[in-house]
From TrEMBL:
SUPFAM superfamilies named among the record's database cross-references: P-loop containing nucleoside triphosphate hydrolases
GO terms, molecular function: ATP binding; ATP hydrolysis activity
Organism: Moorella thermoacetica Y72
Protein name: ABC-type sugar transport system, ATPase component
GO cellular component: plasma membrane
Membrane topology recorded in Swiss-Prot or TrEMBL: Peripheral membrane protein
Amino acid sequence: MKTDNILEMRGISKSFPGVKALKGINFTVRKGEVHCLAGANGAGKSTLMKILSGAYQADSGEIWIEGQKVHLRNPIDALKAGIGTIYQELSVVPKLTAAENIFLNNYPQKGLIVDWRKISQLSRDIFAEIGIKNIDVDRPVETLTIGHQQLVELVKVLVQKAKIVIMDEPSATLSAEEFNVLKGVIKDLKKKGITIIYISHRLEELLELGDRVTVLRDGSLVGTFNIKDLDHDRLVELIVGHPLTAGAPNQGVSEGKEVVLALKDVSNHKLKKINLSVRSGEVVGLFGLVGSGRTEVLRVIFGADKINSGSIEFFGQPINPKAYSPTKACQMGCALVPENRKREGLVLGLTVWENSILPALNRFSKYGLIKSRQINTFVAEQIKNLRVKTPSQHICVSKLSGGNQQKVVIAKWLLSESRLFLFDEPTQGIDVGAKEEIYGIINHLASLGKSIIIASSELRELTKLCNRIIVMYDGCFVEEFYPASTREEKILQCAVAGRKGMTGYGSC
Ligand SMILES: Nc1ncnc2c1ncn2[C@@H]1O[C@H](COP(=O)(O)OP(=O)(O)OP(=O)(O)O)[C@@H](O)[C@H]1O
Ligand SMILES: [Mg+2]
């Protein structure tokens, strides 16, 4: 049977204990298109793609590739059928070189011996073919940037002659420059007739890159649409089920409120003479290119990185830098929601309940006994407020969708009753609806007098939430802006150029 459709998934259903993740999904993809898959956290996007890549088996339904019905019992079957996947969590082997990763299980041989020279050369050739020249294929993958690691994954599936490439949130961990490279590569692959299935919560990416989009909501199909017929608001409505009402912007703090945190001339291997003071009820944004030092500022405040000189004060009391640690920071009422939630934010082997109470254990225990009933109520409240999609509090957190795991990281710190919240990329991988919820929570925390520092690469997020935004460049504070009276382009320009500030910040 001849068809323009390279892929048809018909009536796909899949259940997990307590969750109907997919309910009879029909998903059709044309050859050579960029087909986006959109939906809120937990809608079923990754599950549908895991079925297509052979990682999960559907409970019912059929998969047809180029007019042939196929049975994808495992990832090898899927690869043979021409389906390559770049997962939400990268799956490269960190200690092997890029070239070794690309040809893993598939090493070209000279007689009985693996031909390492050829592996390197072939890898370089393929990278050159997709326009990437500045990657050292002989270095261990763990020493490459996340952007390059992702390209290694991509090349790996191309070597295996994938006709359909699935990208599950490829941009979530990329810098703006790295994303531009990826965009170029996607356009190039499309020209070569390769079909791409693209998942992202950044709607402007879908609108820019996609030909069509299929929207899932709560495991059901909403529909498939031509991107050119949609705009941002219509897409939001399809994903969430109703139009979004924008939350009220932060009202700002009045002068005279107490200074919660003060950094004075703080320097270390990455930071140069950072001066910052944050008052109670204030929301301060840190903006800058990847590598500008935003995360380091948060880590220093949280005691995760040491300082070489300068001082840090909480409520006017200097801390002893030698004895300062994350445990001390927590005791002083400081909370960090880290960027890399899998490594630093969650214990994947524990349940939602256990993860949520970790930083608040003291509050919920007496004489070594844990007050479980009280915790149940608190955790249930957070799950409801943040709309964490989970069948129960007692399910292992690794079973949650990517975005819902992020919400648990936020929930656990909200339970801790901290006074200073440090958020590093708080809405990475979070759907549009839940983003608004998180913005609402941040505003609410500020109205309660909590202080908040947010590092983000989404300028719009910062202009919406913050009383002031500090632009960083190469470990320095460059300039401070008041979003209420500044155009976004001006802040962006400053971040890119690293122009020296007029506000007396440290020199770069
Ligand atoms: N291995 C699993 N065991 C139990 N439940 C699972 C498993 N994998 C997914 N689920 C559940 O299936 C539902 C769909 O999850 P899925 O990961 O497909 O969502 P998603 O659309 O990719 O969300 P996100 O945008 O957050 O990545 C969720 O409720 C999730 O908790
Ligand atoms: Mg997912």
